[in-house]
Amino acid sequence: MGSFFTSTDLFTMFFILLSTFLAIIDGKFSEQYTETKATKHVDKITHLHFYFHDIVSGKHPTAILVAGRRNSFGSTAMIDDPLTGGPEPGSKLVGRAQGMYSMASQYDGSLLMVVNFVFTEGKFNGSSVSVLGRNPVLDAVREMPVVGGSGIFRFARGYALVKTYQYNIKSGDAVVEYNVFVMHH
């Protein structure tokens, strides 16, 4: 019988324990910032425009069903979808949409989206934006909240405006246009 923990799990637990131990030795578990110290930044607003390619068909799908029956309440897909600068599949790759979505409504086509947009190009390379929200896919334009980010987008907040650019009813593949407005430090 195998171990319950992988080497990555053990490393993570060791790191957490070490960090906690060092914080206790230092005598600080948390630190209060004064208003001056906390406000030494200027928020920026960045507009990101890209296309999300959700491929559920063929030999190399980027979204796979992990629970339930496709397009029924509770169905859940894990995704690693390409993000491109244009709507064509051969457009320049700018990142990946990694996460999951679930059919969250029994009555309409609303998804719960839990997605990190991980950027791999230009000045945003290595940074990500996290979206968590309701996506009523039958609406012409949907709005979802940006709830966080990393790298350049640390402390991110904002919103994504989403439009289906193309949907193949036979295959289930979709190309979705994203306009994301991110406020960050």
Which descriptors apply to this entry?
46% strand, globular, mainly beta, single chain, 185 residues, eight-stranded antiparallel barrel, 2 helices
Give a description of the structure.
It is found in: Secreted, Extracellular space, Apoplast. Homodimer. This is Dirigent protein. Residues 1-27 form the signal peptide. With 185 residues, the chain is mostly beta strands. It has helices at residues 7-26, 35-38; strands at 44-54, 63-67, 76-84, 93-103, 110-119, 128-136, 142-150, 157-167, 174-184. Strands 1-3-4-5-6-7-8-9 form an 8-stranded antiparallel barrel. The chain is globular. The termini are far apart. The model has no long low-confidence stretch (mean pLDDT 87).
Which percent range fits the helix content? 10-25%
Query: In DSSP terms, counting alpha (H) and pi (I) runs of 4 or more, how many helices?
Result: 2
Structural class: mainly beta
Q: How large a portion of the residues is in β-strands, by DSSP E?
A: over 45%
Strand order of the largest sheet: 1-3-4-5-6-7-8-9
Question: Any chance you could write out the topology, listing elements then pairs?
Answer:
Blueprint: H1 7-26, H2 35-38, E1 44-54, E2 63-67, E3 76-84, E4 93-103, E5 110-119, E6 128-136, E7 142-150, E8 157-167, E9 174-184
Antiparallel strand pairs: 1-3, 1-9, 2-3, 3-4, 4-5, 5-6, 6-7, 7-8, 8-9
Protein name: Dirigent protein
Family: Belongs to the plant dirigent protein family.
Main location: secreted
